[in-house]
Amino acid sequence: MDKYVEAKAKMRRWNPWLIVLIVLLAAAGSFFFYARSYYRADDRAVEYLVGSDKVKVSMIPEGLFLDGPGEGRALIFYPGGKVEYTAYLPLLCALAEGEDGIDCYLAEMPLNLAVFGKNKAEDIRDAYTCPEWYIGGHSLGGVVASMYAADHEDLKGVILLAAYPAETIKERTIEIYGSEDRVLNKGRRDNSDRYLPGDAVVEIIKGGNHAQFGDYGEQKGDGKALISREEQQEETVRLIRNWLDMVNNDNTASKNTFIAERWNGREEEATENEE
């Protein structure tokens, strides 16, 4: 009995703050393990680290800079959640190619989570000079990019890949996702329409899925793509370039036609799904 009483007395002497510390350390350890289990860039993406004859790839403190032939505009790109940032090199290198291309700053995020680097775009804009800045991202990276855009209305435009705005954005915006995407929360995406500007363009790539915007293999819970990764990225580049031309030309007549065609395509897909 004396030993029992003594044991209870020792338990009472436990410092409550010590218990809290143990719980916090356990939670931090679990989160660190979660964050370290990320999707790694595949071999095709790694090959782009050396650039090409058309695009020069350079390491910068904020990530990578893709310098193409185009001048006067640049895109800051936020990678998807738990995806190695270099997985987006093939897509962005293709976007930077050609005189009508756009230079790209591919941001490296802490623990591969853009939520911990929302203002990485601010670091890039402070360090480098460009007349016209765009921001964009894939999946969680796109959501966080929209949050930055909501606070910085001096941006030229916003590019969302398999993503949706979390706050009201006023900049010109294009949103692209695949018809076979099963990772994107379609309910939240549809509810986010109220955050888009009135002249936003929404594109659906038939046969595309969530993961094929990058080069990191298949993603858990995603739909099976009906087109190749190369085809999806080629179509993405084409759509973005068309939109960039529209933004730069700022031709109201062609702009309205372009938007109508895109939204009609979206309605057609919705009808097919209902059938």
What percentage of residues falls in helices of 4 or more residues? 40-55%
SSE class: alpha/beta
Q: What distance separates the N and C termini?
A: 74 Å
Integer count of domains: 1
SSE order, one letter for each helix or strand: HHHEEEHEHEHEEHEHH
Any low-confidence stretches, pLDDT <50, length ≥5? 251-275
CATH topology-level fold name: Rossmann fold
Characterize the structure shown.
The termini are far apart. This protein is of the alpha/beta class and 275 residues long. Strands 1-2-4-3-5-6-7-8 form an eight-stranded mixed sheet, sandwiched between helices. Helix 4 (89-96) packs across helix 8 (229-249). The protein has helices spanning 2-12, 16-36, 43-47, 89-96, 120-127, 140-151, 186-191, 229-249, 252-274, and strands spanning 56-60, 63-67, 73-78, 103-107, 132-138, 157-161, 172-178, 201-205. It has one domain: 3-Layer(aba) Sandwich (Rossmann fold). It has nine helices and eight strands.
Characteristic key phrases:
Rossmann fold, 9 helices, alpha/beta, 8-stranded mixed beta sheet, globular, disordered C terminus, 275 residues, 16% strand
Summarize the structure.
42% of the residues lie in helices and 16% in strands.
Give the secondary structure arrangement, pairings included:
Layout lengths: L1 H11 L3 H21 L6 H5 L8 E5 L2 E5 L5 E6 L10 H8 L6 E5 L12 H8 L4 E7 L1 H12 L5 E5 L10 E7 L7 H6 L9 E5 L23 H21 L2 H23 L1
Helix pairs in contact: 4-8
